[in-house]
Write a structure and sequence with these properties.
With 56 residues, this protein is mainly alpha-helical. 46% of the residues lie in helices and 0% in strands. The chain has 3 helices and no strands. It is flat, with a radius of gyration of 11 Å. It starts with a helix and ends in a 15-residue tail after the last helix.
Amino acid sequence: MGTVTAFYSALATADGETASALVVPEKRGPFNEASIHTFFGAMSQPLKLRHGAARQ
């Protein structure tokens, strides 16, 4: 859970370097530093994590 939280927290701040470092190299694909920064940096509102929002 800590890695997932760290990943999405990095996305929320458009920190592509940190976010992509948390994804295994074989699975990175579009999760490279520049793409993450460009996409998440352009959001009109930052991504927010909500505790338990995705739990079923």
